[in-house]
Amino acid sequence: MPAKNPLLDAWRSGRSTLNGWLVIPHHVATEAMAHQGWDSLTIDMQHGMSDYSSALGMLTAISTTKTVAMARVPWLDEGIIMRMLDAGCYGIICPMINTADEARRFARACLYVPEGNRSFGPIRVGHYAGSDYYQNANEEVLSIAMIESREALDNLDAILDVEELKAIYIGPADLSLALGCVPKFDQEDPVVVAAIERIVTSAKAKGKWVGIHNATVAYARRMTDLGADFVSVGSDFSLMTRGAAAIVSEFRGHESDRSVPY
Amino acid sequence: MPAKNPLLDAWRSGRSTLNGWLVIPHHVATEAMAHQGWDSLTIDMQHGMSDYSSALGMLTAISTTKTVAMARVPWLDEGIIMRMLDAGCYGIICPMINTADEARRFARACLYVPEGNRSFGPIRVGHYAGSDYYQNANEEVLSIAMIESREALDNLDAILDVEELKAIYIGPADLSLALGCVPKFDQEDPVVVAAIERIVTSAKAKGKWVGIHNATVAYARRMTDLGADFVSVGSDFSLMTRGAAAIVSEFRGHESDRSVPY
Amino acid sequence: MPAKNPLLDAWRSGRSTLNGWLVIPHHVATEAMAHQGWDSLTIDMQHGMSDYSSALGMLTAISTTKTVAMARVPWLDEGIIMRMLDAGCYGIICPMINTADEARRFARACLYVPEGNRSFGPIRVGHYAGSDYYQNANEEVLSIAMIESREALDNLDAILDVEELKAIYIGPADLSLALGCVPKFDQEDPVVVAAIERIVTSAKAKGKWVGIHNATVAYARRMTDLGADFVSVGSDFSLMTRGAAAIVSEFRGHESDRSVPY
Amino acid sequence: MPAKNPLLDAWRSGRSTLNGWLVIPHHVATEAMAHQGWDSLTIDMQHGMSDYSSALGMLTAISTTKTVAMARVPWLDEGIIMRMLDAGCYGIICPMINTADEARRFARACLYVPEGNRSFGPIRVGHYAGSDYYQNANEEVLSIAMIESREALDNLDAILDVEELKAIYIGPADLSLALGCVPKFDQEDPVVVAAIERIVTSAKAKGKWVGIHNATVAYARRMTDLGADFVSVGSDFSLMTRGAAAIVSEFRGHESDRSVPY
Amino acid sequence: MPAKNPLLDAWRSGRSTLNGWLVIPHHVATEAMAHQGWDSLTIDMQHGMSDYSSALGMLTAISTTKTVAMARVPWLDEGIIMRMLDAGCYGIICPMINTADEARRFARACLYVPEGNRSFGPIRVGHYAGSDYYQNANEEVLSIAMIESREALDNLDAILDVEELKAIYIGPADLSLALGCVPKFDQEDPVVVAAIERIVTSAKAKGKWVGIHNATVAYARRMTDLGADFVSVGSDFSLMTRGAAAIVSEFRGHESDRSVPY
Amino acid sequence: MPAKNPLLDAWRSGRSTLNGWLVIPHHVATEAMAHQGWDSLTIDMQHGMSDYSSALGMLTAISTTKTVAMARVPWLDEGIIMRMLDAGCYGIICPMINTADEARRFARACLYVPEGNRSFGPIRVGHYAGSDYYQNANEEVLSIAMIESREALDNLDAILDVEELKAIYIGPADLSLALGCVPKFDQEDPVVVAAIERIVTSAKAKGKWVGIHNATVAYARRMTDLGADFVSVGSDFSLMTRGAAAIVSEFRGHESDRSVPY
To answer: Does the active-site annotation cover D26?
Structure first.
C-alpha cells in the first residue's frame, strides 16, 4: 500500500472503481475476496458481522494484495472510526448522516489536527504507509457519509457543503424505506431513482466523490454512467448464499423456495 | 423462529414467561442453556461478558431451539442496538434509561421508519424470520427500558408515556443502590420493595409489559403474582459457580468461605 | 435432528442426496449455507480451514436446520474422529484410507463397543439425539473412507470387505494425481473415469454406500446415475470466490486472469 | 504455583483431593470455577470441548488461584501431551490406555530424558515453576492412564508395573459399556463395582496413585474410602445445565422432560 | 489483588510507579509482560489492538501476578468504561478529555451512586476484590483523563477542578500535534516541554495524580523528577518490534531501513 | 510469494538466511515481525503457542511481506504437516526425528505423488503460488528434520541418506539434555559443540541444507561460518519479555530477579 490512496488517483483520472463488500467476519474469506481484483473492499461493521477484532485480521488479509481497504462503521462513533483508521483503512463509510453537523463531526474524526480531532497512533497503518503517514493522511483518507434518510435528503445541500467531508455513499435499501418503498438494491421505483439521481448530481456539483451499493454489475454500470465514482456489487455472503441456492435448485430440478438473506 | 414473537403471544394470553440469563460468552454454554426449556434467553452485554462477536455465536446456539433470543446492550448506543436486532434478537434490554427522551431514542432505534430510525439490513434474522420480516419487526421486536435509578423513578410516568417503548425491566441491584440500600436481587428492604411495586403497577396501568431480575424462583413467582410479564432467574454463570461451591463445601464438610461472584 | 440418520433413510429409498462442502471456518458462513436446502453439509478439516473449535460453532449453525452434519477429518486419528462424533457429526469422511487395516481402524473409531472402540461421552450430540443415542449410534453414524490412491485401488476389494465400514468417498483430485493425471474434479480423462466407475460399481456390489466430490451439478448427476448415493458440489469458498471473480470480470469487461483457488 | 506439585503433598500425607472438571472451553467459566476451592481442575480435551488454544486461556485462568491444573488429552498423542505440559499442566490424563506398551509410551512423553522423551521448551510453565523446572518436572508431573476397556482390565497388572507411570484414572462410563452395562457414573451394577474395586486395590498395591470420575460427592466419598487418592465430581457444564433444568422445573411446577447432556 | 489499590498506596508514600503498555491483544503476551515486575499494566483499547473480549483474557493474565490492571478506553463511552471496571480494572484512562463537563461525565462513569452513575454488576472483579468491593470501589478505582489537545490546555484548570476526577495522563504525541510539533514521545521541543511542565505542575497543585507516556526510562525519570506519579515506558509491541529490528540489523551488518511502527 | 522458494535461491548462491521465530499466537504480533526484514519466519506449533487456527492468520500476516513462511509442527503427524503446507508454508520443521524411517515418513508427507503421499488441496497457498503450484511444490517445499536426541545422533548418517529429506535443524536445548548438559541455546559445553559441529559437517557432506536455533546474532554468525544455511535468533516472545525486563530493571535501578521464560 503506497502512502497515496489509489482510489483518488483513479477517480481523478475519471475511472470509476469497483468495491467489494465484506459481511463474513473471517480473514480466510476476505483473503480470497482480496485476490479477485476489486479496486477496494469494504468491511461492513453495521449490517455485516465484523467487529474490531475480526476486522483487524480482515485488514491484514486485504494487505496481502493491492486492494484498498475501507470499513463501514456501525454508527457515528469517534472510538471505532479512529480505531479503523489506525488499523489501516483508507476510507470510512458512516451510516445515517442526517445533518451538516453530523457530517462535520464524522469528517473531523477522520482528520488530524488542525483540520479535525483524530487522535495520533497509527499502530497498524504504520506498517505500510510510511513514517510520514500523518502528513499525508488528511489528504488521502476518505470520509464517506451515507445519505439514506428523508432528513438527509432535506439537508443534502448543507451536508455537501461541509468542507471537511470527502465523499458520500447512497444506501438504496434505507433510502427506499425512507421514501415509502420496498427496501432493496437496484431500485426501479421512480421515486427512489429520482432521489438517487438528485444525490449523485448534487454531489458532483458540490465537488464530492460519490458511491452507491448495487446488486448487479448492470445497475452499477448505470450508476457509473450517471456519475458515480465508486460502486459496490454484492457481498462475499450473498455470493456464497446465492451460489449455494443455485446448486441446490439445479440438483433438485426446481427453483429454491428459500429466501436468500440480505 | 416464526415471524411472530412468542413472548407477546404468551403475555397477551396472560402467561408470564421465564427468562434465562447468559453471562458466559461462549456458544457451547448457551446451546446447553437453550435446551433446558426457558421461554427466552438474554445475552448480557452489560454486566455479562459477551460482545458482538461472541453474541453472534450465542444467537445461533439459541436458534437450535424455540427459545426467544434477547440481549441487554451495554448502554444506549444505536450501533450495538441495531446490530443485535439484525443478528436475530427479538428483544433489547437497555440499561439506565432515566428520561422520556432517552426512552424514545432507545425505542426508535428498535423501529424501522416511519416509527423509528432503525437502519435496514436484517442479515442474520433474515434466515428465519422470512422475507416480510421488515413488515412485522416494528410490531414484534421488544424495546425494554431498564428502570434502575432515582432519576428514572422521578421520570417514571413520562417514560411510561413514550408511545414507541414496548416494555420496562427492573434492575433490583442498581435500584437498591440508588435508594441507599445494599445492591442485591430478591430485595426485602421495604424501600426497594415499594419502588418495585410502584414500577410494576404503573407499567401495567400504562399498558407496558414489565419484567424483573431475580435470584430465585420463589421471588420470581412473587413478581409474576404482582403482575410481572417476564422474570429472569439466575444465570449460566451463577448456576455453575454456586453448584461448584456446593460440591466443594459438601466434600470438605463445611460451608465454603468463598464469595460467589455476582 | 432425530436419532435416525436421514441420509440412510434417503439412500435406502433410492434417493441420492446432495452434500455441501464447508471450507470457511466460521459459523456465520455455515449458518447461511445450512439454510439453502442441502441434505448434508461436510466440514472439511483436511483441505478446508476448520479446526475443532471452529467446527464446534459450525455444527451448532447446522443444527439450526434439518441438514445432516458431517466432517472430513485431517487424517486417520482417533482423537479427532471421536471428538467430531461427540460434537454431533452423523458421518465422518477419512482421507487416504489405503488398506483394509486402516479402514477397520477408522471404522472402529466410529463405533462403540463391542463393534468398535469409540469412547463414551456424547457431550454435544446429546442435546438432540436423545438419551438412547449410544444405543442407536453404531447403526446411524456413517464411517466413510476415502479411496484416492493407487494403493487404495490395489486394495479396493479388501477395503470394501471390512464389515465395520459403512461407506466410501471418491476424491477425484488425489485419485487423478495418483493415476498420473492433472488433479481436478469432474474428470474426463478415461483413466480416471474408469477408476471412478470401478470404485462405484465395486462399492455397490459389496453393499457399501458411495459418494464423490464434484465441481458441477451436471457431473454430480452423472455420478448419481452411475450409482453414487451422495454427491458433493462446490464449496462455500469456491462459490464465493468464483462469484466474485465473475463480478469483477463483468465490470472490467474482460475475463479475469486471476486463478481461482481450489 | 510452586515447583512442587501440591497434589503429591496431599496424597503422601493421606489426604484425598477433589478435582473439578472443565467442559466449557472459555476462560471466563474456568476462572470462576478456579475460585471455588477445588484442589485441582482438569481441562477435558477428549469429551469436553477445549482445544489447545482455549485450554491455554483456561490454564491462565486457573493460575489466578492455587488450584493445580491438569488436562485430559484426546488420545495418546505426544504432540498434544507435551504441549499441555509446556502450557503449565501438572498432570495429564490419557484415555484408553490398554496395554503396558501404551502406558509406557504415554508416561515417557511426560518425562524428560533420560527417563522419557519429552522435548524441552517450558514456554508457559516457565512463568511460575522457576528456572529449575526441568530438574523437578520428572518428579512432580503426573502421568495418569485411564483404565476403561476390557483389554485394559486384562492387562491391568502389566500396566501397573510400568515404572514410568505415576497414576491411573477410572472412567466409569466407558468401563460400564466395556462390561456390557449402561454407560454412567456412580455405578451400582455389581459387575462394574467389582471392576472398580479391583482397579483401585491393584493400583494401591502396586504403588500407583488412583482417581475416578463421579457424579456426586456421596459416591466420591465411597471412592476415597475405598482408597482413591483423587476424585472428580460433576463438571462446569453439568452444574450449569442441571441448575438451569431445576429452575425451569420449579417455575413450571413439574419435572423437566429434557435430557441433561453428559 | 487486594480491595485496596496498590498504586494509591505507592503514590501516597511518594513512590512513583512504572506502568507497562499492552498493544498486542493476546493473553499469552500479556501474561509474560505481567511477570516482569511492572507496578501496573494498561491495556490500550484506543491505539492498541484490544477489544473487550481480548481484554478480558488479558485481565485474567494480569491477575496471575500482583500487577495492577488498567485500561485505556477508545473514547468517552459509558458502556466500555463500566464494562472494563466490572472486568477488573483498577484504573481507566480516557483519551481526549477537553472540557470540565467531559471530565465530570467520565469520572462519574467510574463511580457508583451517589457520587456517579456506574451501574452495579462487578462480575469478574468480584473474584478477587471481595464482597465489599462496591463499598471500596469509589475510593480505589482511578479515573484518569488524558490531556492532549489545545482545548484541554485551555480548560486545564477547570478540568483539574472536577472533584470526581482522580488523575490525569499526558499523551505527548497528540499534545505535540496540537501544538504544531512532530508527534512523538520524549519530546525536547520547548513548546511541548513547557506544556508538559505546566500540566504536571498544575495537576500537583490541584491535588490530582498525574502520569505520562514515555519511550525511554531516562525520559520517564525526568518526568518522575518533575512530579509524575506514574510513568509508562514502551509497549509489548514496540519492545518486540524494536528487538527484532535490532537483530536483523546486527545480522545484516547495517542499520535497518524499516520504519518501526508506533 | 513467487512459486520459487527464495530460501533455496539464497542458499544455492551461498548466502545464509536469517529466520525469526514466532511464539505469540496472534497475527498482530506476526505482522509487525514480518515487516522487520527476516528472510523467513517460523511459526512454532511445538513449544510456541500457535495452533492451526492462529497459524492461519499468522500466515496471512506474513504474506503481507516477502518473508518466507515456515512452521514447526508439534510432532510427526501427517494431518498437521499437510494442513500447514496447504495453508502456505514453504518449509516444515519436524521435531524429534530419530530414525531414517521417521525421516522418510516425514519427508514424504511434504511431497505429492509419486515422490510422497501428500494429499492434494492447496487451499490457501493457491492464492499466491499459481495454478502450477502442484508441479513446483515437490521441488520448492522444504522438509526439515530436527536432530536433537541421542538416537538421532546414532542414526545421523542414515537419516541424512534419506533422499526425500531436504534439510535438518539442530535443536540445541534438547540436544544438550540428551547429552547430559544444561538445556540452553548458544552452548559452549564442548560435548554439545562437538555434536553440533558433527551434525553440520555431516549434513553438508551429504548434501542437505542445515539450520540451527540461537539466542544471539554472535552465536548465529559462528554457525553460518561453520556452514549453517539458515539460523534462527530469538523469538517474538523472548524479545518482548527481555525488553520488558530490561526496562523494569533500569527503572528500579537494579537487575531484575525475574526468570525470563524460554
So the answer is: no
> Does D256 map to a domain?
no
Determine the structural domain holding residue E143 and report its residue range.
Answer: 6-249
Closest CA to A26 of B58, C84, C23: C23
Residue B231: beta bridge partners? Answer: B18, B212
Cβ–Cβ gap D60/E56 under 8 Å: no
In a domain, E17, yes or no: yes
User: What are the b/e assignments for B201-223, b being 16+ CB within 10 Å?
Assistant: ebbbebebbbbbbbbebebbbbb
CA pair distance E170, F77, nearest whole angstrom: 52
Residue written as grid cell 460400564? D176
- Closest by alpha carbon to E262, among E244, E243, E237? E237
Q: What is the pLDDT of residues D154-165, one digit of tens each?
A: 999 999 999 999
Q: Does residue C260 lie within any of the structural domains? A: no
Q: Give the distance, in angstroms, between the CA of residue C189 and the centroid of all CA atoms in the same chain.
A: 23
Q: Where are the alpha helices (DSSP H) in chain C?
A: 6-12, 27-34, 52-62, 78-86, 100-109, 126-129, 133-140, 150-154, 156-160, 172-178, 190-205, 217-226, 236-252
Residue F28's nearest CA partner among C94, D101, A124, C139 is: A124
DSSP E206-246: TT-EEEEEESSHHHHHHHHHHT-SEEEE--HHHHHHHHHHH
Q: How far apart are CA D111 and CA A25, in angstroms?
A: 42
Distance from CA of B248 to the nearest CA of A (A): 38
Chain D residue numbers with beta carbons less than 8 Å from the beta carbon of E61 are 60
Backbone angles phi, psi at C140, to 5 degrees: -95, -25
Q: What one-letter code names the amino acid at E164?
A: E
**Interface contact flag, C259 F126, Cβ < 8 Å:** yes
The predicted model gives F233-251 an average pLDDT of 97
| Residue B236 to residue B243: CA distance in whole angstroms | 11
Task: Supply the pTM of this predicted model.
Answer: 0.97
* Conformational region of residue E121, where left means phi above 0, alpha means psi within -120 to 50, and beta covers everything else: left
Across the interface, whether the CB atoms of B128 and C56 are under 8 A apart is answered no
- Per-residue pLDDT tens digits for F13-35: 999 999 999 999 999 999 999 99
Give SS3 for A14: coil
Q: Three cell numbers at A107? A: 469528517
Q: Grid coordinates representing F77? A: 503427524
Residue D37 lies in a domain: yes
Any contact of D with A, at least 3 CB pairs below 8 A? no
B257: left (phi over 0), alpha (psi -120 to 50) or beta: alpha
Environment class of residue C254 by beta-carbon count within 10 Å: exposed (0-12), middle (13-18) or buried (19+)? exposed
Q: What is the ipTM of this complex?
A: 0.95
C-alpha to C-alpha distance for B190 and B196, rounded to whole angstroms: 10
- For D219, the grid coordinates are 459416591
Domain count, chain F: 1
Cis peptide before A25 (omega within 30 of 0): no
CATH number of the domain that residue C48 is part of? 3.20.20.60
The answer for residues whose C-beta is within 8 angstroms of residue B161's C-beta and 6 or more apart is B100, B206
Question: Which subunits sit against F, judged by 3+ Cβ pairs under 8 A?
Answer: A, C, D, E
> Over C53-79, what HEC string results?
HHHHHHHHHHCCCCCEEEEECCCCCHH
Q: Do F247 and E241 touch (CB under 8 A)?
A: no
Strand, coil or helix: what is B120?
coil
Q: Residues C63-104: pLDDT tens digits? A: 999 999 999 999 999 999 999 999 999 999 999 999 999 999
pLDDT digits (tens, 9 = 90+) for D171-222: 999 999 999 999 999 999 999 999 999 999 999 999 999 999 999 999 999 9
Cβ atoms < 10 Å from Cβ of C114: 11
Helix, strand counts (H, E) of chain B: 13, 8
